[in-house]
Design goal:
This protein has 275 residues and is mainly alpha-helical. The chain contains nine helices and six strands, in the order ββββαααααββαααα. The protein is globular.
Length: 275
């Protein structure tokens, strides 16, 4: 098995998230929708304000003002949510609400169908959300607002697209989806510098989530980079959970969290040739 040696041991995750971030820039560099190709392309004088749920540009400034005005009215807000239910690929990253919908649909798709490709779809969407300056709590708020408004999210087809079937968001789904997203964000912070450029100085995860999961993710990152491993004994990670949270999750749940971290590392920092 190939062992990859990276200078410096990953004894702990980067607690100071600004090491993996840069300040916002105008004109900014927007990462393409496919994060597997680590490439940024200048797209002109756009300013990413994902965490504030809007994008600004001189070309559509007036229309953005109208949308913001409508969003303060209940009826118009419901109309806006419904209009964004079926999001075209070119609009998936146009606002934090669209990003939240895209993430949630991919989360639900993996939970219902399983499969490595579906998991990578969720991770890829999470990587883009990280790059665009989104935060876990900002996207949680978007999902909670949609849940409280009774918005129904369209179900994904097996190979992308939509089925026309819709279902409402459940509170438990929001919590689990955001936990997954936080783990993806923290895993990115545990990678060598730089991996994914983040166009915001705002920390991507809350302090609570960082404390809870940084050790878990760092142990897996150590195994991945320093020893070329793609799996760890579940018991090792359960012991980490006991030390941090005072309890350990079920082995199957811990295994699923571990798979999420390893898969994220494979997406943002592949170590072996693809077969």
């Amino acid at each position: 098995m190939l062992t990859v040696h990276i200078p410096g041991a990953f004894n702990c995750c980067q607690a100071h998230t600004d090491m993996n971030m840069v300040q916002e820039a105008t004109p900014c560099m927007l990462m393409h929708v496919n994060p597997l190709i680590h490439m940024a392309t200048s797209i002109g004088p756009l300013k990413v304000l994902c965490y504030k749920s809007n994008w600004s540009s001189s070309r559509n400034f007036n229309s953005q003002l109208k949308l913001q005005h409508f969003s303060h009215q209940i009826t118009s807000k419901r109309w806006l949510c419904r209009s964004q239910d079926s999001i075209s690929p070119e609009n998936e990253y146009r606002s934090s609400r669209n990003i939240a919908i895209s993430l949630f649909r991919r989360y639900r798709n993996f939970v219902e169908r399983g499969g490595g490709d579906n998991l990578k779809e969720f991770i890829s969407a999470g990587v883009n959300a990280y790059a665009l300056g989104c935060t876990d709590e900002g996207l949680r708020k978007e999902l909670i607002d949609m849940k409280d408004s009774g918005v129904e999210i369209e179900v994904m087809q097996a190979y992308g697209g939509s089925t026309g079937l819709k279902s409402k968001i459940i509170s438990g789904e929001v919590d689990e989806c955001i936990m997954w997203l936080s783990i993806v964000f923290i895993t990115i912070l545990c990678t060598p510098q730089p991996t994914i450029v983040r166009w915001s100085s705002i920390p991507p995860v809350s302090e609570e989530m960082l404390i809870q999961w940084k050790g878990f993710c760092a142990i897996i990152a150590n195994a991945y980079y320093m020893r070329g491993m793609a799996w760890l004994p579940v018991k090792t990670l359960q012991m980490e959970q006991m030390a941090v949270m005072g309890r350990a999750e079920e082995p199957s749940v811990v295994a699923s969290r571990m798979r999420l971290v390893f898969s994220t590392l494979e997406v943002v920092s592949p170590q072996w040739p693809r077969v």
